[in-house]
């Protein structure tokens, strides 16, 4: 069975990673749509770098929760061909044991060279302006996909959605495209669709079935 799972910030919420659009969300009172942009980085690079430095430091203090563990287990079940797509930039799926995680919005522990677009492992404090290992320019930035930028590996995702038997969306508000449109694409190509989220998402009516509650309970219940 071909399964595509899409995860969002809600899957990491019970690990202690704040979501974006809940009351206690990220960006300290700023709308993420106003600050997660290349323009914001251009205007205030220090503020944005510091924000990601803080999230990187916080990541070291959290651990995967039962939702991450259940998804890692799903990938090992006989007869399951899983593509795990996450909008999250944390590494909690990998730390739970998942392999081949597709981070469509980038990774906190990776750096992107704005000059040559090569990606490398984040090397500590970028305030020291280390050069890009690929081209030697000192143009490294967080390897995250901001508004107006194209998410990673869209062709691979689209082709998996078109062949999927099942599409499951977990812990995402459905507020951000193209991820918010995956359910309609998968459904149009014949997949059965399921939402697992704390509350109904913006796209909840597009799913064949929706279960609402904490991912740490819903995901193991669905997988096992
Ligand atoms: C729980 C829970 C628990 C809590 N258990 N659940 C007008 C119309 C349509 C589209 C556009 C438009 N204007 C512009 C656009 C496009 C734009 C967009 O979508 N804008 C919207 C604001 C409308 N999108 C883009 O620009 C994207 N690029 C693009 O479209 O390129 C064009 C293109 C695409 C494809 C092919 C070719 C060309 C890029 C989007 C980049 C998003 N980047 C961010 C920041 C990343 C770096 C970082 O982390 O800092 O990604 S924004 C932020 O939102 C982050 C997230 O990945 C993303 C989604 O958020 P998510 O994960 O859904 O979190 P929340 O907080 O919103 O929701 C959490 C949910 O969990 C809630 O529902 C809770 O209830 C739930 N929850 N606890 C289960 N315990």
Automatic annotation (TrEMBL):
<feature type="binding site">
    <location>
        <position position="132"/>
    </location>
    <ligand>
        <name>Zn(2+)</name>
    </ligand>
</feature>
<dbReference type="InterPro" id="IPR003000">
    <property type="entry name" value="Sirtuin"/>
</dbReference>
<feature type="binding site">
    <location>
        <position position="116"/>
    </location>
    <ligand>
        <name>Zn(2+)</name>
    </ligand>
</feature>
<comment type="function">
    <text>NAD-dependent lysine deacetylase and desuccinylase that specifically removes acetyl and succinyl groups on target proteins. Modulates the activities of several proteins which are inactive in their acylated form.</text>
</comment>
<dbReference type="GO" id="GO:0017136">
    <property type="term" value="F:histone deacetylase activity, NAD-dependent"/>
</dbReference>
<feature type="binding site">
    <location>
        <begin position="87"/>
        <end position="90"/>
    </location>
    <ligand>
        <name>NAD(+)</name>
    </ligand>
</feature>
<dbReference type="InterPro" id="IPR050134">
    <property type="entry name" value="NAD-dep_sirtuin_deacylases"/>
</dbReference>
<dbReference type="InterPro" id="IPR026591">
    <property type="entry name" value="Sirtuin_cat_small_dom_sf"/>
</dbReference>
<dbReference type="GO" id="GO:0005737">
    <property type="term" value="C:cytoplasm"/>
</dbReference>
<keyword id="KW-0520">NAD</keyword>
<comment type="similarity">
    <text>Belongs to the sirtuin family. Class III subfamily.</text>
</comment>
<feature type="domain" description="Deacetylase sirtuin-type">
    <location>
        <begin position="1"/>
        <end position="224"/>
    </location>
</feature>
<keyword id="KW-0479">Metal-binding</keyword>
<feature type="binding site">
    <location>
        <position position="135"/>
    </location>
    <ligand>
        <name>Zn(2+)</name>
    </ligand>
</feature>
<feature type="binding site">
    <location>
        <position position="113"/>
    </location>
    <ligand>
        <name>Zn(2+)</name>
    </ligand>
</feature>
<dbReference type="GO" id="GO:0008270">
    <property type="term" value="F:zinc ion binding"/>
</dbReference>
<dbReference type="InterPro" id="IPR027546">
    <property type="entry name" value="Sirtuin_class_III"/>
</dbReference>
<dbReference type="InterPro" id="IPR029035">
    <property type="entry name" value="DHS-like_NAD/FAD-binding_dom"/>
</dbReference>
<keyword id="KW-0862">Zinc</keyword>
<feature type="binding site">
    <location>
        <position position="215"/>
    </location>
    <ligand>
        <name>NAD(+)</name>
    </ligand>
</feature>
<feature type="binding site">
    <location>
        <begin position="8"/>
        <end position="27"/>
    </location>
    <ligand>
        <name>NAD(+)</name>
    </ligand>
</feature>
<dbReference type="GO" id="GO:0036054">
    <property type="term" value="F:protein-malonyllysine demalonylase activity"/>
</dbReference>
<feature type="binding site">
    <location>
        <position position="52"/>
    </location>
    <ligand>
        <name>substrate</name>
    </ligand>
</feature>
<dbReference type="InterPro" id="IPR026590">
    <property type="entry name" value="Ssirtuin_cat_dom"/>
</dbReference>
<dbReference type="Pfam" id="PF02146">
    <property type="entry name" value="SIR2"/>
</dbReference>
<dbReference type="GO" id="GO:0036055">
    <property type="term" value="F:protein-succinyllysine desuccinylase activity"/>
</dbReference>
<protein>
    <recommendedName>
        <fullName>NAD-dependent protein deacylase</fullName>
        <ecNumber>2.3.1.286</ecNumber>
    </recommendedName>
</protein>
<feature type="binding site">
    <location>
        <begin position="171"/>
        <end position="173"/>
    </location>
    <ligand>
        <name>NAD(+)</name>
    </ligand>
</feature>
<keyword id="KW-0808">Transferase</keyword>
<keyword id="KW-0963">Cytoplasm</keyword>
<feature type="binding site">
    <location>
        <position position="55"/>
    </location>
    <ligand>
        <name>substrate</name>
    </ligand>
</feature>
<feature type="active site" description="Proton acceptor">
    <location>
        <position position="105"/>
    </location>
</feature>
<dbReference type="GO" id="GO:0070403">
    <property type="term" value="F:NAD+ binding"/>
</dbReference>
<feature type="binding site">
    <location>
        <begin position="197"/>
        <end position="199"/>
    </location>
    <ligand>
        <name>NAD(+)</name>
    </ligand>
</feature>
